[in-house]
Amino acid sequence: MIDFSSPRHRHKLGYLLVAPALILMALIIVYPIVMSVDISFQDVKIARIGVDRKPWTFENYEWLFTSAKFYQSLWVTIKLLLVVGGAALAIGFATALLVNQKFKGRALARLLVALPWAVPEVVAVVIWAWMLDSSFGVLNWVLLSSGIVSKPIAFASDPVAAFASICFVMIWKGYPFICIMLLAGLQSIPEEQYQAASVDGANVFQRFLHVTIPNMLPVLGVAFIMTALWVFRDFAIIFVLTEGGPIGSTTSLAIMTFEESFKFFRMGQGSAVGVITLIICALLSRALVSRFAKSVN
Amino acid sequence: MFNLKKTAISSLVALSTVLGGVASAETLSFVTWQRDDGAYGQWWAEAKAKFEEMHPGVTIDMSQLGRKEYADTMFTMFAGGTPPDIVHLAAFEYQPFADQGWLEPLGPWIEKDGIDLTGWAGQSTCEWKGETYCLMLLYAGFVLAYNEEMIKNAGFDGPPTTYDEYVEIARALTGDSDGDGIVDKYGIGLSTMEPATVMHQMQGFALDSGGNWTRDSKPIFDDPATIDGIRKWKSLMQEGLSPSQARSNDLRQLLIEGHVGMWIDGPWVASILDRASEEMRPKLKLAHSPLSPPLGGTSNILGMSSEISDERKALVWDFIKIVHSEEFQNKFSDYSGSPAPRPGMDYEDNIAANENFALFVEASQRAADAGVDRLPKGLELHNSELSKVVFEEAQRMLANDLDPAEVGATLQKRVEAFE
C-alpha cells in the first residue's frame, strides 16, 4: 500500500489525479489528430477504422500543393483572419473600454454586448440568412426603402457581397468574446497606475497609450490568438450562410476539409487539408505567443 | 448482513432477467428523412407497424434526419462502422455506398423468394456494377404547381404548356404588388442555393431543348442543345423572374403564400400545397410541366447494410418485402397521392378520389417514355462533385455574365477531369 501522504510519494498522487483527464484528452484530441495524419498519407477515398490500411504515400500532399482550390481557400482564410480578427479585436476592445466606464445602465450594456456570443451559433446564423435574403430579407428592404441601393444586394450570389456578409456575421458573433476577455483584463489594471500617470500630467490618450495598452498586451495577444483559431476552425457560419460559395469566394480551409472528406468522399485529401490547417494554426499560435511574451518582458 | 446478502442476490436475479429480456428482443435501426413528412411518414409508420405485428419481439427504431445533412450523416455512420440496418437513401446518392461494399446485394434474396421486378419503375437505377442493391421506392415525373388566380389576373386563360408561354406568364406575374417599389411577386421559383436542385432544374431546361447532361454515359455539357438549356436558365435568372437567393423549401413556402406564381416539382408538391392556408389552397393547382419531356426520374431507394448478421439481414429483407407487397404499394399510392413503382397497379379508385392522380401517372409515364432520369448516367459516383461543379459554373455565369457556350465548354472540361 502506497502512503501518498509521505513526501516520497506525494507527487505520485498528483500524477494519479491528473491521469484520467490526460487519458481522456489523449482519446478525444490526440487520437483523432494521429488518425488524420495517418489518413492524410494514404491514397484513400473512405477511411475506416479497423479495415486494411493502405501504404503511406505523398499523393494527397502533391495534389494539395498543386491545387488552385487549396490556395484559393488559404487566401480566403487569410482574408477572413485579417478582416474578422482585426475588426473583432478593434470593436471588442472599444466596447470593453466603453462598458468598463461607470455609467447608468452599465449592467444592461454589458449584457447587450455579450448577447451575440450567448446565442447558439446555428440559430443566429439562420436568422442572419433570412435577414440577408436578397428578395425578402429585411436588410435589403431597408436599403431599398431608404434609397441607399437601387436594386437588391445579392448577399449569397455575389462573391464580394457574400464575403462581406460572412465577415459581418463572424465579427458580430466573435467580438463579444473578445470584449469579455478584454474587460477582465481592463479590470485587473491597478487604479494607482492611472492615478500616477494623471499626477505626472498624462492626458486620457497618453494614459491609454502608456498604461492601458502595455498592461493589456498579454490579454490582447491571447484574444487575438483565440480569434485567429476560431476563424480557422469556424464552419457553421460559412456553411449555413453560403456553403462556401459563390464560386469558392467563401470557401475557407475548414469548408474545404469538409467538402473533400464528406461531400466528395476523398478523405485522404480532406485529411491533408486538415493537417496543413493544423500546422498553420500551430505555427501562428507559436509565433503570436512568442511575440506577445517578448512584448510583456 | 443477511439482509444485504439477500438484497444483492435479488438484485442480481432481477438484473439477469432484465438483461435476458433485452438480449432476446431485437431492434432494427432505420434512419430516414421522411418519418415526419406527412403522407410518407404515415406510410412508413404503417409498414413498421405491419413488420412488428408479423415479428413479435422485433421492433424497428425509426429515426428522423434532415434531408440536407442526410447523406453526410449516413456516410459517417457507415464509415464509423455503425450503419443502420435498413438503409434508406436518395437514388442519386446510394452508388458510393454500394461501391464501398456497404450495401448487401439483394439479388440472392430476390431469387430466393422468386420476386419478379420486371416493369418496376426505375428499378434499373438500383443495378450497380451488375448487382441489384436496392428496391426503388419512387419514380416520378415532375409537374407544374401554379397559382391560378395570379395567372388569371395577369390575363392568361391557364397555365403554360410550352417554355415560351412559361416565360411570358412569368414576366407578367413578376412585379411590385404593394407599390413600395420593391418586387414582391415572382413568376417562377428557381433554387439558387442548393447545388443538386440547381443542377436538376437546369437539366429540365436542357431536356426541353433536346439536350441532357450525359448521353450513353458520356458527358455532353458542350452539346448545343444542352447549352441552349443553360441559356434558358440564365435568361430566367437574369430577368429576375425568380427570387435570387432561395432554397427549394423557401420557394415552396413562397408559392403557398402567393409570392411565387409557378414552381416545377415532383408529385410530393401536392402535400406541400395542402399546407397552404384555407384562403390560398383553392388558388393552387397542378398541371403538366411546360417543359417537354418533363424532368423526372428515380427518387429514393431501400436497401440493407452488408455489415449486419445474417439473422438481421433476414429481418430487413422481410421489411423490404412488406414495402414491395401489393398491399403496401397500394397504400403508397393512397398516402402519397402519386403512382407507386409496382407495375400493373389499379389506380381507378385513386383517380376517382384525387383530381391530380391521373396527372401524376401521366407525368411519370411521359418522363419514363423519354428515358429521363435526374441522375446523370455514367457520373453516378461523382454526383455530389458534379452538382457542386454545375452550381459553381452557374454562379460564375451569372456573376460574370458569361456566354452559356463558354460555360458548357468549361463544364465539359471539368467533368471530364473527374477521376
Task: Give the CATH superfamily of the largest domain in chain A.
Answer: MetI-like
Total number of helical segments of chain B?
17
For the record, the CATH class of the largest domain in chain B is: Alpha Beta
- Characterize the overall form of chain B: globular
Return the average pLDDT of chain B rounded to an integer.
90
Helical percentage of chain A: over 70%
Task: Provide the CATH topology of the largest domain in chain B.
Answer: D-Maltodextrin-Binding Protein, domain 2
Q: Secondary-structure element sequence of chain A?
A: HHHHHHHHHHHH
Whole-number total of structural domains of chain A: 2
Q: How many strand elements of chain A? A: 0
CATH superfamily of the largest domain in chain B: Periplasmic binding protein-like II
- Assembly context of the chains: heterodimer
**Structural class computed from helices and strand pairing of chain B:** alpha+beta
Radius of gyration of chain A: 24 Å
Helix-strand layout with pairing:
The complex is a heterodimer of chains A (297) and B (419).
Chain A: H1 10-40, H2 59-65, H3 68-100, H4 106-118, H5 121-131, H6 138-145, H7 159-187, H8 191-199, H9 204-233, H10 236-241, H11 253-263, H12 267-296
Helix pairs in contact in A: 1-12, 2-12, 3-7, 3-9, 4-7, 7-9, 8-9, 9-12, 11-12
Chain B: H1 2-24, E1 26-32, H2 38-54, E2 58-64, H3 70-79, E3 86-90, H4 95-99, H5 107-113, E4 127-128, E5 131-132, E6 135-136, E7 139-141, E8 143-147, H6 148-153, H7 163-173, E9 186-188, H8 195-208, E10 214-215, E11 218-219, H9 224-238, H10 248-256, E12 260-265, H11 269-273, E13 284-288, E14 296-298, E15 300-304, H12 310-324, H13 326-336, H14 348-353, H15 357-369, H16 383-400, H17 404-416
Helix pairs in contact in B: 2-12, 2-13, 8-9, 8-16, 9-17, 16-17
Task: Note the main attributes of this structure.
heterodimer; A: 297 residues; mainly alpha; MetI-like fold; 2 domains; 12 helices; B: 419 residues; alpha+beta; D-Maltodextrin-Binding Protein, domain 2; five-stranded mixed beta sheet; four-stranded mixed beta sheet; 17 helices
